[in-house]
Amino acid sequence: MASQRLLVLDFVRRYIARWGFSPSQGEIAAGLDVHRDRVRRAVRSLVRDGMLLRGAASRGLALPGAEAEAVRQLQGAGWTIDAAARRAAKAPLLPPAALDYTGPAEEGQASDGTAETRTQGP
């Protein structure tokens, strides 16, 4: 069986798509045939996780926009979101590598300091 959260989220999505406004928690409870307390807990959890937005009115539930949903999914996948700069960055898995390259070699000398031999082509 699907989790109560997913059932509530699906109900809210379908209700808004059909009617253009959000259902009350009582309507969600009646539509899913569950007690209102279960709906309240599921809504609170969905709001906390950013999957639903809640306003002050009794029908104040709303779905996050595409951008908010994308940000939530990226954060869930471990991305760091800088909303002010509108940038996302993946946390590095490994620290930056320390390079031992010192710069371009002088003409006639290999990068390891030994003499370089060149052969003329045919």
Task: Characterize the structure shown.
The strands form two sheets. The chain has a two-stranded antiparallel ribbon with strand order 1-2. It has a two-stranded antiparallel sheet with strand order 3-4. A hairpin with a 4-residue loop joins strand 3 (79-82) and strand 4. It is 39% helix and 10% strand. The model has no long low-confidence stretch (mean pLDDT 80). The chain has four helices and four strands; from the N terminus they run H-H-H-E-E-H-E-E. It has helices spanning 4-19, 25-32, 36-48, 66-76, and strands spanning 53-54, 61-62, 79-82, 87-90. It starts with a helix and ends in a 32-residue tail after the last strand. The longest helix is centred in the N-terminal third of the chain and has 16 residues, at 4-19. The chain is of the alpha+beta class and 122 residues long. The chain is rod-shaped.
Provide a quick synopsis of the model:
The protein is of the alpha+beta class.
Features:
about 120 residues; alpha+beta; two-stranded antiparallel sheet; 4 helices; 4 strands; about 10% strand
Q: N-to-C terminal Cα separation, in Å?
A: 76 Å
Strand content: 5-15%
Spatial arrangement of strands, main beta sheet? 1-2
What value does the Rg take, in angstroms? 28 Å
Number of helices: 4
Oligomeric organization of the protein chains? single chain
Q: How many runs of DSSP E, i.e. beta strands?
A: 4
Largest β-sheet summary: 2 strands, antiparallel
Helix residue percentage: 25-40%
Structural class determined from secondary elements: alpha+beta
Low-pLDDT stretches: none
State the shape. Answer: rod-shaped
- The H-and-E topology, N to C, reads as HHHEEHEE
Mean pLDDT: 80
